[in-house]
Amino acid sequence: MMLAHASDCRLAQPSLNSSRPGQARLCKCLADAGCAHTRLRAVRKQRSSGCSRRQKTAVLASSVPQDVIDVEGTLVDDRIPVTIITGFLGSGKTTLLNALLKQEHGRRIAVIENEFGEIDIDSELVAHQDFLEDDQQIMMLNNGCLCCTVKDDLIRMLGELVERRATFDHVVIETTGLADPAPIIQTFRSIQYVAQNYALDGVLTLVDAKHIGQHLDERKPEGVVNEALSQVAYADRIILNKTDLVSGDELMDTEMRLKNINALAQVVKAQRADVKADYVLGIGGFDLDRVAEEVIGEAEVSQSHSHSQDHDHSHDHGHTHDHEEEHAHAHTHNREEHSHSPGAAHVHDHSSEHSHGPEDGHGHAHGHADHHHHDHTHDDSVGSVSLELEGFLDLDKVNDWMENLLYDDADDLYRFKGVLAIEDWPDRFIFQGVHQVFEGSPGKPWKEGEAHKSKMVFIGKDLDRDALAAGLKGCLA
Ligand SMILES: Nc1nc2c(ncn2[C@@H]2O[C@H](COP(=O)(O)OP(=O)(O)OP(=O)(O)O)[C@@H](O)[C@H]2O)c(=O)[nH]1
């Protein structure tokens, strides 16, 4: 695994080439920059019997501990898993938390609740429930929003929990409804002490099926985050909650809109946030082994058929839709590239874009009887771009491209994941990133005769699909 953080040193843009099996070397640019703060070290992990056939080579930022090798020689990450539960005001976060604490799932959960204001209503709703076991801990952060004023408090609280780690298995953080998850995610990726002790399991976003449209449509002043949009964009998993309050057509519209914003997140529909604990805990959103599954869609998602309620899952990414060109992951298409970005040409039949803002009178009730709900677009500035390209990529070109991309646009790149076919490499190269922090490692080997296709998904603001596609093409060997 490689993890780099560019903000420690302005010149130190991360490079992809550091995890080459058997040939690990420092990132060229980092070494050149000579930046003491971000000096990377190459670590070769031992091959052990019964372990992966691949010898893993890793380059780690000094802030991240080496994985532990257990008695059977398997690499294990013994950090404390953390799930962030986010979602707009009233979307059902507390309802989910209560349901989670009631379920028999075998994990002892420590909860960190963030509540605006001095009266912590949520702790009343959660902490004093009679189902709460003695060993389940609720910690409150009341004096502001996690993503802004109480970040230091969060770090302190995480420190306290490390001291008590024998008493719980998993930390769940419930943000306020107005939190932008980005700074919270970055806390787990870039604060050394936190990254050493905690492994971010993933971001679960609750969506109120009835009201999400109006929150997404809300126009914010320049430079102000639309929290609802950000919460969807950063999600690994989404619960489309309160399905009882909308029609089937509205639900389908909303689901498509969520997928346009975030092509990587799984979406499950629910009432009262009633989902299985496995959907919330054990997400693996930042786990490189799962990135390949998500991006390629080649593996069964283990929990995909295990949760309850009347939902249909969206993590098969659009296979149930009658549009042959939409959403989804590239394995269903012959096209070299396609996009989820707003305004991407292939998605829309309409000659002009229109939005679902409350003021435009368009609404969802204007007769989608033909079920072409997703023929129209929204002008969400945040969207997804999926790219697929056949052929080997040149490693140096990829490095140069990614360096430039992250140097210029890291702020607007919320999350990105990919699987690359690198020339002369026997294995896929898997990577994932959040803004300027990203990591990668060799994945599964290419099979004999298999087409070498690289796939990347970017989620971000004002993404330039054509430029991204051209950039990827420019990396061909
Ligand atoms: N009709 C309906 N109501 C729901 C559903 N899920 C939750 N609610 C209700 O919606 C309200 C808000 O739910 P909460 O769980 O408190 O939402 P929250 O996201 O924690 O809210 P904030 O703390 O304000 O951000 C409560 O009255 C819930 O009982 C649902 O599926 N359908």
UniProtKB/TrEMBL annotation:
Out of the domains of life, which is the source? Eukaryota
Query: What residue stretches are annotated with the CobW C-terminal domain?
Result: 382-476
The entry sums up its family as follows:
Belongs to the SIMIBI class G3E GTPase family. ZNG1 subfamily.
CDD domains named in the record: CobW-like
- InterPro entries in the record, alphabetically? CobW-likC_sf, CobW-like_C, CobW/HypB/UreG_nucleotide-bd, P-loop_NTPase, Zinc-reg_GTPase_activator
Compositional bias (Basic residues) spans?
364-375
Please state what the protein is called.
Answer: CobW C-terminal domain-containing protein
Q: Which keywords describe this protein according to UniProt?
A: Chaperone, Hydrolase, Nucleotide-binding
What GO MF annotations does this protein's record show? hydrolase activity; nucleotide binding
GO cellular component term of the entry, any:
cytoplasm
Taxonomic source organism: Coccomyxa viridis
Starting at the broadest rank, the lineage of the source organism is: Eukaryota, Viridiplantae, Chlorophyta, core chlorophytes, Trebouxiophyceae
Residue ranges with Basic and acidic residues bias: 307-363
